[in-house]
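dumping this here so i dont lose it
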């Protein structure tokens, strides 16, 4: 008797199913996996920067490191931080350490469990005591992320360029120094009495600074003295990198023209450019008057213009405008081309009539609206006057 034809087919299906199951089992991830939590829900009112790194083997936590950066004192811009290995015992994680700056004692006691429901994340509960302040941790359904996604989400470098080929990605007046944390105070003190503007916000160490062990101090100088200032500061104690960085230069509001008629003996003729700049902007804005001042420390021009207020002509009101500008060679050192950049104009309506005057003020509604002043095609007018190129966004070149 012959076996039914369907028996071999049934055996083939069974064998295929077994092989597929074995292949699927072999493809499943095995061994330790690194995962990251980047927040504790409602912890410190969301003001803490949390990194909890765990190595897990299946459901078991094999090691954990907690790194928390937070406002200190509460509500301030200043940050303190602590980081420590956690002692893992089942679902419990504990540690005792001290903060990086204030050396305040820290005690940590956390418990981690799976939140109910598929893909619901983890519940992390417990307490963290910093000094005499006990903080409750009650983070429900907390999601984690892979090591690759965590690394991709980290902020990038601070764009310090020691020797830029041209001022495109960086700005001619803006310099920055990366300084070791323990040397920041002395470095900043050494800038007293110098012709260097220091960014106030860069004086406060960020969480990234505390973790990196360095702080980036941002400064603004006259483009003419930037190279000399960089050379002078790079030898200071604790400086690990220094160069040009991002700043005021916005290429869409800049022109580039030959330096031949606007410089002498390797120096830009700032007076000649200032006069041409002021006259051209006066024409572009249809202003009755225009005056300019140049800050010798920053190298920037401030042009103040005045014209009748078109919107309120019947009242005889005036509109005062202010425009900031800067001229510099288009690359460090001496070049055959000059960049001229102008900022966005700002305006204010005033009553300058003789006798009694209106007291004008801005309302909350005015503040919420866009108060941008039309620049009257000022960039085009400057390009015509200086026979200059303008920045082309499509080709990323001056044309």
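and the seq i came up w/
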């Amino acid at each position: 008797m012959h076996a039914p034809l369907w028996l071999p087919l049934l055996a083939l299906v069974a064998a295929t199913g077994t092989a597929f199951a074995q292949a699927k089992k072999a493809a499943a991830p095995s061994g330790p996996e690194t995962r990251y939590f980047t927040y504790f829900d409602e912890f410190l009112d969301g003001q803490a920067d949390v990194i909890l790194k765990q190595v897990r083997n299946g459901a078991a936590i094999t090691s954990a490191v907690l790194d928390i950066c937070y406002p200190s004192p509460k509500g301030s811009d200043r940050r303190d931080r602590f980081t420590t290995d956690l002692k893992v015992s089942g679902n419990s994680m504990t540690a005792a350490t001290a903060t990086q700056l204030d050396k305040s004692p820290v005690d940590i006691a956390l418990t981690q469990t799976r939140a109910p429901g598929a893909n619901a994340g983890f519940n992390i509960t417990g307490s963290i005591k910093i000094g005499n302040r006990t903080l409750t941790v009650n983070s429900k359904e907390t999601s984690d992320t892979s090591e690759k996604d965590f690394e991709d989400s980290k902020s990038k470098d601070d764009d310090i360029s020691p020797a830029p080929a041209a001022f495109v990605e960086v700005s001619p007046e803006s310099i920055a120094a990366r300084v070791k944390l323990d040397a920041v105070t002395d470095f900043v003190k050494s800038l007293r009495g110098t012709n260097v503007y220091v960014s106030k916000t860069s004086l406060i160490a960020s969480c990234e600074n505390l973790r990196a062990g360095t702080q980036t101090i941002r400064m603004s100088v006259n483009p003419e003295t930037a190279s000399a200032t960089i050379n002078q500061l790079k030898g200071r104690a604790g400086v690990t990198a220094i160069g040009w960085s991002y700043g005021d230069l916005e290429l869409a509001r800049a022109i580039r023209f030959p330096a031949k008629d606007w410089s002498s003996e390797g120096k830009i003729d700032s007076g000649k450019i200032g006069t041409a700049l002021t006259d051209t902007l006066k024409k572009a804005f249809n202003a009755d008057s225009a005056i300019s001042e140049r800050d010798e420390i920053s190298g920037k021009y401030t042009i103040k213009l005045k014209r009748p207020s078109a919107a309120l002509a019947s009242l005889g009101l005036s509109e005062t405008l202010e425009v900031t500008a800067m001229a510099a060679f288009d690359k460090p050192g001496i070049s055959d081309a000059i960049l001229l950049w102008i900022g966005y104009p700002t305006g204010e309506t005033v009553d300058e009539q003789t006798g009694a005057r209106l007291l004008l003020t801005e309302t909350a509604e005015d503040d919420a609206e866009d108060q941008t002043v039309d620049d009257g095609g000022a960039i085009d007018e400057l390009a015509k006057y200086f026979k200059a190129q303008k920045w082309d966004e499509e080709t990323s070149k001056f044309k």
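The longest strand covers residues 60-71.
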